Amino acid sequence: MSKAILGKKLGMTQIFTEEGTVVPVTVVEATPNVVVRVKTVDTDGYNSIQIGYGEIKEKHLTKPVKGQFDKAGVTPVKYLRELRMTDVPEYTVGQTLAADIFASGDLVDVIGTSKGKGFAGTIKRHGFHRGPMGHGSKSHREPGSLGPMISGGGGKVIKGKKLPGQMGGNQATVLHLSVVKVDTEKNLILIKGGIPGAKGSLVMIRDTVKPR
Q: PROSITE patterns under this entry (predicted)?
């Protein structure tokens, strides 16, 4: 990975290509990010950069976090994310990253927090099939018996078992999306298709890990 930027999801719309084809896009507002820290194999054991995004008042920062910004000599930001790199980063502390680091036609991955949907059963959460809906059925939307698994698993439910629970609100990544348009004046990046998260949520756009 060589480049990435943080931004805010504004929502979806559609645009027309020069050929007249309509394309559904998600609009991301990517105001300039700042490089807060650069890590290398020699100093930290691995290569990465730490980028920051968003405005925040200093009174809302803890002393350790404020000290990190003071050491870097940059204005405090609300969000910090680290981006691993294979080679030594060609970035410097204090450098700004704008929307123009991407261009139309680039392939990217988008990382965000999926919409929270509250407590959900196995049918909605995992796509289970329901049981018979007749009056004689004792199991309509229940997940089924756990007896054999519990008795053979030490008397407890094994971690990762598909059961009812909180749905959404997790980190989600969509791979191999295409950048349709970049508006450098308004700091907007238009990405083909949908991306994780609600309107106004934080997302990271990075070079795709699957270029082909």
A: RIBOSOMAL_L3
